[in-house]
Amino acid sequence: MATTTPAVAGIDRRQAPRANAQFDVRYGKGDEFSDAQTCDISATGIGLLGPKQYPMGDEIELRFRPPASDKGDLVTMKAKVRHSSGQRMGLEFVNVPTSDHLRIRDMIKRLVGTAPK
Fold first, then answer.
1. At the N or C end, where does the chain have fewer CB atoms within 10 A?
2. Which domain holds residue 84?
3. CATH code of the domain in which 23 resides
4. Is residue 3 part of a domain?
């Protein structure tokens, strides 16, 4: 008698925990930037909802001010498109300077309530 194993749906391959977060981001390439809203963020990437989509593998620039922080400095970083569907894109941060990586981790801790405020 043959048996079947149910397919595992929606395997999460993320390398770091993510936090639900909604804040404004500018994203784009060259002189063409669009406004977007984040869905979630982790130490290694970010999910965006925005009007402009880029093909998988493209590298784009992100500009945002971390929410839940007393430091309002603008963060500018590069990210690679890992998936794109409808108005949503999943992006992986690339070549992140240590200082920005630490700021992102601190922001995530604040968003999930594990850091002093």
1. N
2. 18-110
3. 2.40.10.220
4. no
Listing DSSP states for 58-100 in one string gives -EEEEEE--SS-S--PPEEEEEEEEEEETTEEEEEEES--HHH
Cβ count near 66 (within 10 Å): 22
Quote the pTM value: 0.77
9-40: per-residue pLDDT in tens?
344 455 566 788 889 999 999 999 999 999 99
Looking at the domain assignment, is residue 65 inside a domain? yes
Cβ atoms within 10 A of the Cβ of 110, count? 19
pLDDT (tens digit, 9 = 90+) per residue, 29-75? 999 999 999 999 988 999 999 999 999 999 999 999 877 655 667 88
Does residue 11 fall inside a structural domain? no
Rounded Cα–Cα distance for residues 27 and 29 (Å): 7
For 61, the token pair is: 């620039």
* 6: in domain: no
Are 40 and 18 in contact, with CB atoms under 8 Å apart?
A: yes
Torsion sign over Cα 105, 20, 48, 116: negative
Q: Give how many domains the chain has, as a whole number.
A: 1
